[in-house]
């Protein structure tokens, strides 16, 4: 198996390589010291890198949503309704999950439309939107491990390929590509192992809690 933790480390390093000279380091230095940022951008300081990237992604998303809400009252109403339903669910009260899902789809569609418009008009916007996509891939890798989702894991590794290629991380690009090729035939070649992986046994668990999966190369 391709170690998901080391894949994540390499992805974080690739993000640092591709974002070199964009001002990302200066932004992260608002949170961490200069030496820590160097390790973050090379992917060596994983926990700090994840925290820093997620914080920045949240800020960028917040700016984007706020801008759309100021210009589109319908979008603002949808976001507020989603927040109300989500808060109600967190409090353990009854609320329509299907209604929340429908509204989330509409919100996501409007966000994607706005992102496409920004990317077409501004190279700087396109750069930071690409950064947000790369951070989303990192989140997908973490999510797949934590939930023990085999399909999400393969999808996330597939999303890493163009990032590895663009950053010049060719060893991981080749390894990940061969890994995906082999795993795509796993159901035919070894149905029993495939079934176990589908059940979440490709990760290590020390408890039966939902968010407890860890990559085999991390334990």
Automatic annotation (TrEMBL):
Superkingdom assignment: Eukaryota
Protein name (record): Uncharacterized protein
UniProt keyword terms in alphabetical order: Signal
Signal peptide start-end: 1-25
């Amino acid at each position: 198996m391709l170690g998901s933790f080391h894949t994540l480390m390499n992805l974080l390093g690739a993000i640092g390589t591709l974002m070199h000279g964009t001002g990302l380091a200066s932004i992260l230095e608002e949170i961490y010291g200069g030496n820590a940022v160097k390790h973050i951008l090379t992917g060596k300081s994983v926990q700090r890198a994840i925290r820093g990237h997620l914080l920045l992604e949240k800020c960028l998303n917040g700016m984007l949503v706020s801008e759309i809400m100021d210009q589109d009252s319908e979008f603002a109403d949808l976001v507020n309704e989603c927040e109300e339903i989500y808060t109600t669910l967190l409090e353990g009260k009854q609320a329509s999950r299907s209604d929340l899902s429908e509204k989330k789809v509409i919100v996501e569609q409007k966000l994607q439309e706005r992102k496409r418009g920004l990317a077409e008009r501004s190279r700087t916007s396109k750069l930071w939107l690409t950064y947000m996509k790369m951070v989303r891939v990192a989140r997908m890798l973490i999510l797949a491990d934590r939930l023990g989702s085999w399909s999400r894991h393969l999808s996330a590794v597939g999303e890493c390929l163009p990032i590895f290629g663009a950053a010049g991380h060719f060893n991981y690009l080749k390894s990940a590509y061969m890994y995906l090729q082999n795993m795509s035939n796993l159901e035919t070649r070894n149905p029993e192992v495939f079934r176990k992986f589908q059940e979440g046994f490709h990760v290590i668990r020390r408890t039966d809690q939902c968010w407890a999966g860890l990559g085999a190369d991390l334990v």
